Amino acid sequence: MYVCICNAVTESDIGSAVAEGCCSLRQLREQLGVGACCGRCTGCARDVLKNSLHAHTPHRPASAGQLAAA
């Protein structure tokens, strides 16, 4: 799906940028131009960024101390 029509940026483009180390809306704007024109895509871009960051974050197994506290 297109997130930023002005700069033809898709969800996939944002996911790729996150995989390459992008981790903020400011970095997306600098790298892809998201939100740099009309700004209407900023909210959607933020949501896609959060989802992509969550998907690319390594999930560590809980330690014994964390399990006992739960």
- What's the story with the biggest beta sheet? 2 strands, antiparallel
Q: Element order, helices and strands?
A: EEHHHH
Give the N-terminus to C-terminus distance in angstroms. Answer: 39 Å
How many helical stretches? Answer: 4
Outline, from the CA principal axes? elongated
Strand content: 5-15%
Gyration radius (Cα, Å) is 15 Å
Helix content: 40-55%
The strands making up the biggest β-sheet line up spatially as: 1-2
Question: What is the average per-residue confidence, as pLDDT, rounded to a whole number?
Answer: 88
Helix/strand-derived category reads mainly alpha
Count of strand segments: 2
Summarize the topology.
Blueprint: E1 2-4, E2 9-10, H1 11-19, H2 25-32, H3 42-56, H4 64-69
Antiparallel strand pairs: 1-2
Helix pairs in contact: 1-3
How would you summarize what this structure contains?
With 70 residues, the protein is mostly helical. The chain is 54% helix and 7% strand. It is elongated and about 40 Å long.
